[in-house]
Write a structure and sequence with these properties.
This protein has 274 residues and is mainly β. It has three helices and 13 strands; from the N terminus they run ββαβαββββββββββα. It folds into two domains: 205 residues, no CATH class; 39 residues, no CATH class.
């Protein structure tokens, strides 16, 4: 995907190494990578990491706190996260706004005949996710997603394990061999190849006035700078009026429990040898 800002073209470039949580945390501690800030409550025992997956653990032992997790995306980074809540119908309540297209997709599924609530969310340039599975902590919301500076989802504590998997990470980088300066609606693409590049001229850039000229002083861009590039005409925060998502009904949860009970009943009834 390409982005044009004041005539300068950028592109979302994949960053494969940053799909590992431990690597992302290490880079964040050094002021680098896609994570601007994060919090892990309960330590590694209650925010368990395995490669690209992090599980926030629900602990039901009395007088023991469960896990909680908070993560905020750095400016000009975009990350796609797959979320799984180990209970059905979780997304039925909690939405404060209708999510922008593709920014917060929800669905329901089953695993071992037990209901699950799934979601795919996109965090970008200051967006954040908070998960406190038992509501044990005052500095982390129970289940909150902020996109575009507004609260899109603010749900109750899940009271079950929540798995967060990094799908992909992208950073906005300057495309090579591009001109700078705002382009007029007509003109610039001299060779008519559909792309205004150094083989063309930019009528608004004094450094590029003839075919073949190259801009020796392009607008530099360093990933992670505080100034966020404004480029997307869509409102990342969605619509002000919430419209309930049209979701498939969740499978009847008792089916899963009945199936498990029947399975263990058969095992217990097996005659012993001898």
């Amino acid at each position: 995907m390409r982005v044009i800002v004041d005539g300068v073209r950028y592109q979302w470039s994949k960053v494969p190494p940053l799909t590992d949580w431990n690597t992302a945390f290490q880079q964040s501690d050094q002021g680098k990578g896609w994570i601007e800030s994060y919090k892990r409550k309960g330590g590694g025992a209650y925010t368990q990491v395995s490669g690209d997956s992090l599980t926030v653990i629900d602990e039901d032992i009395p007088f023991t706190s469960s896990g909680a997790f908070y993560v905020k995306a750095r400016a000009n980074y975009r990350v796609g996260l797959r979320i799984r809540v180990n209970r059905g119908n979780y997304w039925k309540t909690g939405f404060k706004r209708t999510p922008a297209p593709g920014r917060f997709n929800t669905s329901y599924s089953t695993s071992l005949m037990l209901p699950k609530s799934d979601a795919y969310i996109v965090l970008e340039s200051g967006d954040y996710l908070s998960v406190d599975v038992d509501g044990d902590y005052s500095d982390i919301a129970q289940f909150r997603v902020v996109q575009g500076g507004v609260i899109v989802f603010d749900g109750k504590a899940a009271d079950t394990n929540v798995k967060i998997t990094i799908d992909e990470v992208r950073v906005l980088v300057l495309e090579q061999d591009e001109v700078s300066g705002p382009l007029e609606e007509e003109g610039g693409d001299l060779d008519q190849d559909g792309v205004v590049d150094s083989e063309d001229f930019d009528p608004n850039d004094p450094d590029i006035q003839n075919p073949g000229d190259v801009d020796d002083d392009p607008d530099d861009f360093t990933p992670g700078e505080e100034e966020i590039i404004v480029y997307d005409p869509e409102d990342r925060g969605g619509l002000e009026i919430y419209v309930s998502p049209n979701l498939k009904p969740d499978p009847f949860p008792l089916l899963g429990y009945i199936g498990l009970a029947a399975f263990f009943s058969l095992i217990l009834r097996r005659p012993s040898n001898g």
